[in-house]
Design a protein that fits this description.
It contains nine helices and no strands. By secondary structure, it is mainly alpha-helical. It has one domain. 37% of the residues are buried.
Length: 270
């Protein structure tokens, strides 16, 4: 009677994909669980009023006020590029005043919220991850626990609340600046008057567009600090680990912003 044995090489080829799938599933479940615990901890801190107003104002200054220059520059460039490309594509084919609607819709619905969020991922999200990661590897987070203080209420909740407050304001600024930049660019490059530009903008404007833009801003303003805090608190391995975690955090936040942006149209524009 003969027995069939699986060769070690064949067994490894079978086991390796299964190990990879299991490792990915475990990492996803681990991230999801830790994010859920973090969100619950922040919500509990808000409900129990354990969030310092001074810390929130300080984080609003860091996230919001200090980000205004780069947000304005990004919005100006977005408005100019949208106006020039729209003028190139539509000149001679449709009435030029339609460019006003193209610029306003592009900036308000898409470019204003998304580009602002991407800028904040690099400027704010990476900073939060690096700060908390440094505190984690230097055992400052453990010191809070040893003293009986909740690091989520002290470090995480103020940043989350500040992001929800500051990002919609930054997006509103980006929308206004982007539209004005597009209007000026249309006047200088295409000779489209301001009255004609605004006529086209009003012709196809929906009040829902502004609410849609600000809803995106609130969701992005919540996602960026939550993910950056979560990744910062997961930092291991000293300075090298901090660098790896910050890089992974930026990638994680950017993908999250793009995925959420893709989900908004079928959910809110149908």
């Amino acid at each position: 009677m003969s027995t069939t044995r699986t060769s070690p090489l064949r067994q490894r080829l079978v086991d390796r994909p299964l190990e990879s799938i299991g490792r990915v599933a475990r990492n996803v479940a681990e991230h999801a669980g830790q994010l859920g615990i973090l969100v619950f901890g922040c919500a509990r801190a808000f409900v129990t009023m354990k969030v310092s107003a001074r810390s929130v104002l300080q984080q609003i200054y860091v996230i919001g006020v200090q980000s205004i220059p780069i947000v304005i520059v990004t919005a100006v460039l977005a408005g100019i590029v949208t106006s020039q490309q729209g003028g190139y594509q539509f000149q001679g084919a449709v009435p030029l005043y339609v460019l006003g609607s193209i610029v306003v819709a592009s900036v308000v619905l898409e470019l204003g919220p998304v580009l602002t969020a991407i800028v904040l991922v690099g400027r704010v999200g990476a900073r939060i991850t690096a700060e908390l990661g440094t505190m984690k590897v230097s055992e400052q987070i453990d010191a809070y626990h040893a003293l009986g203080r909740d690091p989520v209420a002290i470090l995480a909740a103020p940043r989350v609340l500040a992001g929800v407050i500051a990002v919609p304001i930054l997006v509103a600024i980006a929308n206004v600046v982007g539209v004005l930049a597009g209007m000026v660019a249309a006047r200088l490059t295409l000779g489209l008057g301001y009255e004609s530009f605004l006529y086209g903008a009003r012709l196809f404007w929906h009040n829902w567009d502004l609410l849609y833009s600000l809803t995106k801003a609130v969701v992005f303003g919540l996602s960026i600090p939550i993910i950056s805090i979560h990744m910062g608190l997961r930092t291991r391995g000293g300075a090298a680990g901090g660098g790896r975690t910050t890089t992974a955090s930026v990638m994680f936040m950017t993908l999250t912003i793009l995925i959420l942006d893709a989900l908004f149209p079928p959910l809110l524009l149908q």
